[in-house]
Design goal:
With 380 residues, this protein is an alpha/beta fold. It folds into 2 domains: 229 residues, Rossmann fold (3-Layer(aba) Sandwich); 74 residues, Uridine Diphospho-n-acetylenolpyruvylglucosamine Reductase, domain 3 (2-Layer Sandwich). Helix content is 46%, strand content 13%. The protein has 12 helices and 11 strands. The strands form 2 sheets. The chain has a 6-stranded mixed sheet, with helices on both faces. Strand 7 and strand 8 form a beta hairpin. The two termini are 30 Å apart.
Amino acid sequence: MLPVAPRSGSRDRPPVSTSCRKGWGRRVAWGTVADTFPASDSGVQRNAPRTVHRLSREIIRALSNRDVVLERVGDEVPLVLVAVSGGPDSLALAAAAAHAAPVLGVRFAAVIVDHGLQSGSAAVAERAAETVRRFGLQATVETVAVGDDGGPEGAARAARYAALDAALRRTGASAVLLGHTLDDQAETVLLGLARGSGAGSLKGMAEVTGRLVRPFLSVRRDDTHAAVAELGLDAWDDPHNVDASFTRARVRHRVLPVLEDELGPGIAEALARTAEQAREDSDAFDEMIEEFIEEICEPAEAGLSVDIGALAANPAAIRNRIIRLVARGEFGTSLSRAHTLAIAALVTEWKGQGPIDIPGIRVSRNGGRLVFTATGSLSH
């Protein structure tokens, strides 16, 4: 079982998907990492193959990010969770974490989420737990019930993150590591573009989102597979990863290979670079917009209001971004393009039309203010 955080002095932290966690605990300073890590009781730490050693440096770098704060749990050193499925990426992540632990001065523990979607899933989860225990990590299996909202992939993802959220709260861990690779990032960017998600889709996944940390976003999937092979591990091959009924599987096994064949090698790396550059630009823009929002927003009953004049005076790109940031930051709701334009029309095409109702929010125009009000259900 994973350790449970002491009740005394504990904080009610926000969920992993939305927290900022500024000002908690201590930050780890990045310095020179020795070529040979200190030995411990773990065989992975004593005799780590070269690929595992290299992957461990990615974990050290990611956990040294200024947005990651490692906080002690009672009298214990900071605890970081590792999300493990039993596949090659997550087993490589767990092995590299065990190797990095002495350098970071933290404890790692694994959380294996059993979605129960396939026959024998419980056995797969327990085998993954036994494997990471051989690395010297504590491990627990969390069985979840997967709903129907968002389709099979979306529902499973929601259940998985809810389980990780619960584990973070229960244990008082500072962060959870996820095994997404550069290849996953490339797939995410392509999927976003195919859905017409706009420039935001180019950002892909962030290395740090709240307490979610993805240290392998610059690592190819071939490298995680190589690490598992070097360790002689029998990783689980999820049949869903090759099931053409899943969109991501088609992107992985059909779309990206065709792009590589037709446009030349390096497509995945190019998509990942694009995501990194787009995120840098977007984050800087969002920070400036958030400062502006503070000047034009006021509290309102069950929500807040935004100055119509300020919205109207700015270009559509800024106006729409303000609307999206207010919806996401204040109400936890991600707006579609159609919703954003409908709300913006209350500013630019005002003809006395009624309020705009979207999941979790009602937006109306009242005098010179655009009023956002919370309603019954939120859509994350």
